[in-house]
Amino acid sequence: MAHKKKPARTRPPRRVSRDTSATGFSADHLAAIMDAALDAVVTMDSAGCITGWNRQAELIFGWPAAEAIGRTLAATVVPVRYRAAHTRGLAKFLDTGAGPYLGRRVELTAVHRTGREFPVELTVTPFRRGDHWHFTGFVRDVSGVRRAEQFLRQVIDADPNLIFVKDWEGRFTMVNRAAAEIYGTTVEEQVGKTDADYNPNREEVAHFLRDDRDVMFSGTPRFISEEPVRDARTGVSRWFQTIKVPLLSLGEESRQVLGVATDITERKRAEAIRETAYRISEAANTLLELPELFRAIHDSVRGLMPADNLYVAVIDPATGLLSFPYFVDQHEPPPAPRPMGRGLTEFVLRTGRSLLATTEVFDSLVARGEVDLMGAPSVDWVGVPLKSQGRTGRPLNISIAGLASVRLKLLDSWQ
User: Fold this and answer.
1) Cβ neighbours of residue 35 under 8 Å, at least 6 residues apart?
2) pLDDT digits (tens, 9 = 90+) for 371-409
3) What b-and-e string marks burial along 61-82, b requiring 16 or more CB atoms within 10 Å of the CB?
4) pLDDT, mean of residues 286-300
5) What proportion of the chain, given as a percentage, has pLDDT over 70?
6) Are 51 and 69 contacting, i.e. CB atoms less than 8 angstroms apart?
7) How far apart are CA 339 and CA 100, in angstroms?
8) How far apart are CA 288 and CA 309, in angstroms?
9) Long-range contact pairs involving 274-278 (C-beta distance under 8 Å, separation at least 24)
C-alpha cells in the first residue's frame, strides 16, 4: 500500500510588530540587542508609564523587568524631591513639544529600588507611535566615575604644590586647594576666573598669559627655575619653581596648559641668609676699621629686610657704659654713652639671646617689668647679641639691632 507523502511541517511565523518588520528585525531580536547594551534602555509612554526595561536597567535600578514595566517612571527611578518637577516637565512637553533634557546628555540623580541615590548620565529621545508620544532613555551609572574623580580631587588637594590648568584665554579650568588659597579664594570660585581677577600687577598677568600661550602654541613643556607669584592673602610675593605642560584634546580643538608650581621661598630665603652671612664674614676678615665693618653689615642686612634704621651698641667693661659706635636712625640722633638701663638693647645684652620684639612681645616684656620704653616706639624691633675681642683681648658685649618705625619684616619676596 502506497503511503501518501505528508507535507513538510512549517514553523509558524513569529509575530513581528509593525515597527520592527520594516527593519527586518524581529521583536525578539531587538530585545536581545537591548539586553546586550551596556547602558540601561528604558522606554516610557505619554502617561509616564514604563513600557520597556532592558537587562542593564534591572542591574542599575534593582527592579526586575516584570515588576518595572507598567509602573510610573517617576515612582520607580526618580527621587521623591524631583518627582513633581518630572511630572511638570512631561506635561510641558506634551503641550509644547519642548523639554530641557531632550536630545542631549545630562547628569541627574536617580534612585535604586533600595532607596540609595546615585548619579547617572541620561539621554532622552522622544518619538511618535501613531497619535501618541513615547520616549526612550539611555541611562549610564556614573557612580564609579564620580568616585574616581573624588579620589583624584583628594589627591591633588593634598598636594602642597600649586596645580592648575588654564585655557587659551587664561581662564582657570582646574585648580587644587593650594592654588586657590594663594589666590585667596576657593577651588569652586577660581574656576572660570583669570589671573587678572586676583592680581593687580597687569605686567605680571600679561607675562603669565604670554608664557602659557607659548607653551600651548609650541606644544613644548617649559621649566621655570624661579618666578615670583603674588600671594593675594598677604599682598606679598612668594617664589615658585614651575613646570608647564601643554594639554591638547584629541582633535586639537582645545588648547590648555597644565602647571605645577613648587614653593621655593624658604630655599631662596636660606640662600639669601647664607649669602649675607658670607658677605659679613668676608667684611670682617678684610675690613680693618670697625665703622667700615658696621656699614658693610648694615648693607648686608638691608638685603634681607627693610632695615634702614640700624645701630650697634657696645658695653665697655671698664666703665660699664653703653655706647653706640654705629647708629643710623630716621628719627633720632646718635645717643651719647650712657649707663645700662632697661631698654630692649640692654635686655638682649643681659640675656645673650636674640629677640624679635613685636608689639605683643614688647608689651609682655613691659608688663613683666623686664624692659622700659626708651626712644621712639617701633612696630617691630630685632636685636642680635655678639661677642667680640677688644684691642686688649678682653671680650666686648655687642648688640646689633634694627630700630624700625614701620613693621620690620623680611623683604616681600622672601615672605
Assistant:
1) 54, 55, 56
2) 887 666 666 788 888 765 544 333 445 555 544 333 333
3) bbbeeeebbeebbbebbbeeee
4) 79
5) 82
6) yes
7) 86
8) 24
9) 275/303, 276/300, 276/301, 276/303, 276/304
Distance (Å, whole) CA 374 – CA 359? 14
Is the distance from CB of 195 to CB of 189 less than 8 angstroms? no
* Three-state DSSP string of the chain: CCCCCCCCCCCCCCCCCHHHHCCCCCHHHHHHHHHHCCCEEEEEECCCEEEEECHHHHHHHCCCHHHHCCCEHHHHHCCHHHHHHHHHHHHHHHHHCCCCCECCEEEEEEECCCCCEEEEEEEEEEEEECCEEEEEEEEEECHHHHHHHHHHHHHHHHCCCEEEEEECCCCEEEECHHHHHHCCCCHHHHCCCCHHHCCCCHHHHHHHHHHHHHHHHHCCCEEEEEEEEECCCCCCEEEEEEEEEEEECCCCCCEEEEEEEEECHHHHHHHHHHHHHHHHHHHHHHCCCHHHHHHHHHHHHHCCCCCCCEEEEEECCCCCEEEEEEEECCCCCCCCCEECCCCHHHHHHHHCCCEEECHHHHHHHHHCCCCCCCCCCCCCEEEEEEEEECCCCCEEEEEEEEECCCCCCCCHHHC
Q: Quote the cell numbers at residue 350.
A: 643681659
**Residues 162, 261: contact at Cβ < 8 Å?**
yes
Question: Which candidate, 50, 210, 24, places its Cα nearest to that of 136?
Answer: 50
Across residues 222-242, what is the average pLDDT?
83
Judge whether residue 305 has pLDDT over 80.
no
Region of residue 391 (phi > 0: left; psi between -120 and 50: alpha; otherwise: beta): alpha
Who contacts 415 (Cβ-Cβ below 8 Å, separation ≥6)? 231, 234, 236, 237, 238, 265, 409
Query: Are the C-beta atoms of residues 281 and 293 closer than 8 Å to each other?
Result: no
List C-alpha distances in Å: 200 to 204, 212, 230: 9, 19, 9
Q: Select from 170, 149, 146, 153 the least CA-distant residue to 259.
A: 170
Q: How many CA atoms lie within 13 A of 243 on its CB side?
A: 6
Beta partners for residue 110, in sequence order: 118
Cα distances (Å, whole numbers) of residue 133 to 22, 46, 180, 357, 359 = 20, 5, 49, 80, 77
> Cα torsion at 256, 257, 258, 261 (round to 10°)?
-150
Task: Match 614688647 to its residue by C-alpha cell.
Answer: 362
Spatial separation of the C-alpha atoms in residues 352 and 383, rounded to whole Å: 10
Hey, what amino acid is at 310?
Answer: L
Copy the grid coordinates of residue 83. Answer: 518627582
